[in-house]
Amino acid sequence: MAAKNNPFVNRVLESIPQQALTRGVYTEDNLRQRYTKIYRVAKRVTLIDETGGSLMKFMLSYFQSVCVIPSVYAIHESDEVDVSKMDVFQLCGHARYWIEKGDLEQELKFMNQLTGESRRVAADWIEETRLLLETKQAALALMAFASSSGLGTIF
């Protein structure tokens, strides 16, 4: 309770999203499992934009998703990527690569670039992942503060 009136602690606690405090957050493993379904569906609706599409367009989009194998060329965090030139298959492929590596933050960067129906399909997953990462960052900041405060009392 010594840090109760500490401005840093108060600021970090205020930064934790209200939804995380009241409902909690999904685990990383749960989000990885959900991503598998999101990936499959987002690929199937890649040709559908924000305005929707006809049955024929949905069928064409599905067949395209079966035929296209996404390429991944950004395999290091330092690799520069022009996401404006990437299609849904490439974005989802990169996101899948990073989730297999255990890096939710990098994956979220790619998933945030989705548009159209693919974005709508992934919107809930994107929000839940963002919520987890924000909460995790706040928890790490509080743990670092607690550790440094503890070390400060020793010396």
From TrEMBL:
It is a single-pass membrane protein. Keywords: Membrane, Mitochondrion, Mitochondrion inner membrane, Transmembrane, Transmembrane helix. Component of the MICOS complex, a large protein complex of the mitochondrial inner membrane that plays crucial roles in the maintenance of crista junctions, inner membrane architecture, and formation of contact sites to the outer membrane. It comes from the Eukaryota. One of its GO terms (cellular component) is MICOS complex. It comes from Dreissena polymorpha (Zebra mussel). Its main location: mitochondrion. GO terms for biological process: cristae formation. Component of the mitochondrial contact site and cristae organizing system (MICOS) complex. Signal peptide: none annotated. It holds the Pfam family Mitofilin. This is MICOS complex subunit MIC60.
